[in-house]
Amino acid sequence: MATISDTLLKRRTIRKYTSEPVDDKLLNELLVMGCRTSTTGNMQVYSIIITTDTQVKNDLAPLHFNQKMITEAPVVLTFCADFNRFNKWCLLRKAEPGYDNFLSFITAAIDALLVAQTFCIAAESKGLGICYLGTTTYNAHKIIKVLKLPRGVVPITTVTLGWPSEKPEQVDRLPLEAIIHKQTYADYSDEDIIKYYHPKEEREDSTQYVRENNKETLAQVFTDIRYKKADNVYFSKILLQVLKDQGFMEQ
Amino acid sequence: MATISDTLLKRRTIRKYTSEPVDDKLLNELLVMGCRTSTTGNMQVYSIIITTDTQVKNDLAPLHFNQKMITEAPVVLTFCADFNRFNKWCLLRKAEPGYDNFLSFITAAIDALLVAQTFCIAAESKGLGICYLGTTTYNAHKIIKVLKLPRGVVPITTVTLGWPSEKPEQVDRLPLEAIIHKQTYADYSDEDIIKYYHPKEEREDSTQYVRENNKETLAQVFTDIRYKKADNVYFSKILLQVLKDQGFMEQ
Questions:
Q1: In A, residues 196-225, which contact B (CB 8 Å cutoff)?
Q2: A13 touches chain B (CB under 8 A)
Q3: Would you say residue B250 lies in a domain?
Q4: Is residue A175 situated within a structural domain?
Q5: How far is it, in rounded angstroms, from Cα A228 to Cα A132?
Q6: Do A222 and B181 touch (CB under 8 A)?
Q7: A48: which chain B residues are within 8 Å (Cβ-Cβ)?
């Protein structure tokens, strides 16, 4: 069996899967491991929606910008911040829940994300491949409809899961010293930034990416094409409205 | 070495640590593993503040409600959503960053939390103990001052790290069927809620907890003492102001 170090150090995101399904018993084991993750006050304010049905996956696909993983992966997992279950328990037990506010949303989102990552590591340790879909927070309002999420529940991230049918190169990462700060935050000088990002900019795949997109710099590919201000502003408004609609902005 | 299943299934949060420091080389290895975690568009929009200095830990302690782990753990790690570094890179490379909005905050928070959880699993696999502190989002504004976090950076969670000097009982969890939903969300009936929460309510530690707090139900201990509406509302306002002050609500 792979060691933990190997699993964590040699991992890569997998976007292509074989047609082999993920055994229910194995999936269950992974979920049990996920649910041992730390959770605020042991409240477990999250839910996991497991979608294997072709029709539901087809309904989800456009909400994830038709990324092929959604329909091609045998399993799609949507990790949700969920105070609905806890609130129902409180109301049944003569307790008045006070979780219809932004802090509670963040608390539940943290719970959901930590569980998601444990689940992914457990899956990868068994040889499965995963891919996170950031589109969940873009189209939360539509995902809520497809997955029938009640008030108190907000989808935070989606993971596709399956047996790998590709072994892509590992992507680059910034040097560790670019990410960590000792004692307190030491803000970056221009020289620091150039030093830390230069290796990324010099990569063949980066320069090709810049050329293909007719841009002058790699940073412009991010700001002008991949993660544009107009999109971010548009989806920010929707996401804040989702929090309101799902009952997390009552303060 | 522990298998991954063992590490994940047998874990418990550790709040008491020996005085033995965590070796720099080991800490570094754990951080490198953490940074292989999936990240949105490989932007790595997070930073990790590693605090070992007694004075800085003392300054942080009251912001975490003087939980002893902060001063007693050899290492305190504050995981932050961080667009500051990425924005600086964009500006140096003739690109106009559009990340001063709520969606970008959530994107960066997701990045930071996934890394935090990988780091914790890596640490636990080496025999170290960790404890998450949910107080980070309560007192983010004060933590920002102590850790000197610039605009574009918001602390999301804090982890204390050290060699365990306790082995507490594993805490209970809800049954898996309470957490997962197949295909779409099946909302809970009263009977479901009672069935899922009953074992928790019946535990000796739960009934003792209810008695000690002079409450009628376990749920009331949460709503009236541990996670009160008034506190949640108060800290929600502060956290939303923090997002504004740190430059994430410009849409």
A1: 196-197, 201, 216-220, 222-224
A2: yes
A3: no
A4: no
A5: 20
A6: no
A7: 179-181
The residue length of chain B stands at 251
User: Both B17 and B107 in a single domain?
Assistant: yes
Number of domains in chain A: 1
- Joined together, the tokens standing for residue B112 give 């930071």
Helix (H) or strand (E) segment spanning residue B151: none
Assess: ipTM above 0.90. Answer: yes
What DSSP string describes A205-233?
HHHHHHHHTT-SSHHHHIIIIIS-HHHHH
Structural domain boundaries enclosing B219? 176-229
Kindly state whether residue A139 falls inside one of the protein's structural domains.
yes
251 residues of chain A, pLDDT tens digit each: 578 899 999 999 999 999 999 999 999 999 999 999 999 999 999 999 999 999 999 999 999 999 999 999 999 999 999 999 999 999 999 999 999 999 999 999 999 999 999 999 999 999 999 999 999 999 999 999 999 999 999 999 999 999 999 999 999 999 999 999 999 999 999 999 999 999 999 999 999 999 999 999 999 999 999 999 999 999 999 999 999 999 999 96
Nearest CA in chain B to A172: B42
Is the same domain home to B125 and B163? yes
| Residue B105 and residue B190 share a domain | no
Q: Are B75 and A212 spatial neighbours (Cβ–Cβ below 8 Å)?
A: no
Is the CB of A8 inside 8 Å of chain B's CB atoms? yes
Whether A33 maps to a domain, the answer reads: yes
Closest CA to B157 of B119, B125, B100: B119
